[in-house]
Every structure is written in structure tokens, then in C-alpha cells.
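TODO from last week: model cyclic-guanylate-specific phosphodiesterase.
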Amino acid sequence: QVKESGRNAIAFFNENMAYAVKNQLVLEGELHRAVEEKQFELMYQPKVDVQTGTLTGAEALLRWHHPERGLVSPALFIGALESSGLIVDLGQWILEEACQKLTLWQKLGLWHTGMRLSVNISPRQFRRTEFVDDVKTTLRNKPYLKGALDMEITESVVIGNIDETVSIMHELCDAGLSFSLDDFGTGYSSISYLKRLPVSTLKIDKSFVRDIRVDRNDKVLVETMASMGRHLGLTVVAEGVEEQEQLTLIKEFGCDEYQGFYFGQAIPADDFAHVLKSSCKTAV
Ligand code: C2E
Ligand code: MG
Ligand code: MG
Ligand code: MG
């Protein structure tokens, strides 16, 4: 009996693996086509000042308009973009697209000094030898983007070579960019990287914020991360704020900014321009 169930377990495992591999191949095929047929769009999620409730910028988030399945969340395909290498070209498109929108919003007078637009950079993209040159080329003749563009990275960009990572980041900081450490607290060595990487912002992962009202551990962790970030002179952003009570707590803990469904989810560029416009009116 033991043998039998053992064999079954193995067969089950293999079938699941085969299924996963097949799915992965189908997905990669679809993604290739999606790149060719430009089925991607960037949407923008507002970032908000915790104290004043005013806009501090936005994070550009990738969306895939799948011909049959509709709008697909990046959680389901970022991994495949990364493993297939498609993220390299698409990542460059994401950067250019975000810069183009930023240029437009600045020209329309909707983008105030001090506001930042963040773009997520994948490890594979960051580690390419051409990365720095490509970014500099994208920024060439656009001095107005200086100080307005931010790159969100996770600790997985480091992969063993911290010195090289630090020097790439310094070179890009010199070109006018800033960096945020994304998904803080979810990795293996967040704190040691925080010490070494030239980041100006720490983003507390939404998995800590979610149960902050009811889970005492989460509450302590968010409070501690916020305090650590503040003492290191960083801007602290809380991700995934969905309710007033969470906002009250992160305010109490000294977070500078938040992002979350409580203020708004990621929306198309034109809609975000309207948000910018109405925030200009309230500011006047
Ligand atoms: P992330 O960079 O940590 O982005 C934040 C995610 O949290 C976004 O999911 C956002 O929609 C979601 N979020 C924001 N507020 C709330 C909230 O109040 N509640 C909940 N439940 N979720 C909230 P999204 O857009 O599905 O993206 C998932 C991940 O995919 C991102 O996590 C990022 O790692 C990756 N990603 C998205 N766009 C890009 C991109 O352009 N390039 C790269 N390389 N990765 C991207
Ligand atoms: Mg991010
Ligand atoms: Mg994040
Ligand atoms: Mg995340």
C-alpha cells in the first residue's frame, strides 16, 4: 500500500510538472506574440503623502491586454518574461514609455518639482552590460527628467555582486536617477543591502501592511522598518494601504508616503493625468 501510494505520488508530481512546463511554454509563446503585437500598457498608481494626502508621484505598473483572457496581472507573467529574457526589450520599452509620459505631464505643467515617477527594473534587465548606456541614451537631451525618475529594484538585482551593483547605481544616480528598495522585508538580506545600496526610498512590502490592524507582529515589524528607514534618512513608503485604519497606523509609525487601493489603484495614463490635474487645483 505504501509502495502504491508512493508511486502514485510520483506520477502525480510528474504530471503536475509536465503541466507546469507545458503552461510555461505556452505562456512564453504568447508573450513573444504580445511583445510583437504591442499588447502591453503601463498604468500608473498614485503615491500619496501620508501627512497631507497630496500626490507625491506614481509607480508605473505593467498590464497585459490578452486577446482572450482580458487584462492580465503581472504577477502571472513577470516570471516568464524574466526567464525567457523578453523582459530585456520590454523593460527598455517600459522605461521609454514612462519617460515619454513624464515629459508630456511636465510640458502640460501637471508635474511638480519633487514628484517622482517610479519604474520597476527587473534583475535580468539591470544586470545587462548595456543597461547603464541604454538608460543614459533614453535620458539624453531630457535634462528636465533629472530628479523626477526613480527606479524600483529588489534585493535580487544584487545576485552575488554587490560592488558592481553599487557602482551601476552610483553611475545612474549621477545621471539624475534615484532608487527605491522594493518589497522590503521579504528577501533574505534586506537589512544588509539597505546598508550598502545607494537607495533613497524604502518600500515596506504590502504583505506586512495587510494585517497591521490585527496582527501584533506585523504591527511591530512595520513600525520597526519605518523607524529604521527614517533613521537612515530614507523616504519610507508603505505599500498596499487599503483602509483608513491602516493609514492611521502607518502615519503614527512615521511612514512618509503610501500607495494602495485606499487612495487608488493603477489607472491608464490619461486617467492619471486627470488625477494630476485635480490635485493641481486642490494645491492652488
Ligand atoms: P510591486 O512593484 O511591489 O508593485 C506593487 C503591487 O501591489 C502592484 O501589483 C499593485 O497593483 C499592488 N497594489 C498596490 N496597492 C495595493 C493594495 O492596496 N492592495 C493590494 N492587494 N495590492 C496593491 P501589480 O501591478 O499586479 O504588480 C505585481 C508585481 O509585478 C510588481 O510588484 C512588480 O514586482 C512586477 N511588475 C509590475 N510592473 C512591472 C514592470 O513594469 N517591470 C517589472 N520588471 N516588474 C513589474
Ligand atoms: Mg514596485
Ligand atoms: Mg513592492
Ligand atoms: Mg510587491
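Done. Residues 182-183, 203, 205, 239 surround magnesium ion (ligand 3) (CB under 6 Å).
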